């Protein structure tokens, strides 16, 4: 009674086909496939739109503008 055998799955499949019909199941399969394709495309588009993070400069390599700020008196 624990797991379903192949015979049980075949009976379930036959009942589903009788209830919905093959045309309806084909349409559902096509809709599901296009939904998955659009989902993947949306994920890929989001990854392309994200800005790339710049690496931190090496320690000790400060730019000229940073050195000016350090040398100017606070007032």
Characterization of this structure:
Helices cover 68% and strands 0% of the residues. The protein is built from three helices and no strands. The mean pLDDT is 79.
SSE layout:
Elements: H1 6-20, H2 22-49, H3 64-71
Concise summary:
By secondary structure, the protein is mainly α. 68% of the residues lie in helices and 0% in strands.
* Mean pLDDT level: 79
> Unreliable runs, pLDDT <50, ≥5 residues?
none
| Helix content range | 55-70%
Q: Can you count the helices?
A: 3
Count of beta strands: 0
> Alpha-carbon distance between the termini?
84 Å
Measured on Cα atoms, how large is the radius of gyration? 31 Å
What oligomeric arrangement do these chains adopt?
Answer: single chain
Q: What portion of the residues fall into strands of 2 or more residues?
A: under 5%
Shape descriptor: elongated
- Reading the helices and strands in chain order gives HHH
What class would the helix/strand composition place it in? mainly alpha
Largest sheet: none
Keywords:
mainly alpha, 75 residues
């Amino acid at each position: 009674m624990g797991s379903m055998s192949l015979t049980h799955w075949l009976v379930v499949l036959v009942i589903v086909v009788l209830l919905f019909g093959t045309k309806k199941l084909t349409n559902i399969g096509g809709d599901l496939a296009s939904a998955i394709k659009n989902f993947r495309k949306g994920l890929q588009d989001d990854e392309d739109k994200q800005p790339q993070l710049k690496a931190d400069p090496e320690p000790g390599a400060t730019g000229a503008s940073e050195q000016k700020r350090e040398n100017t008196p606070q007032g």
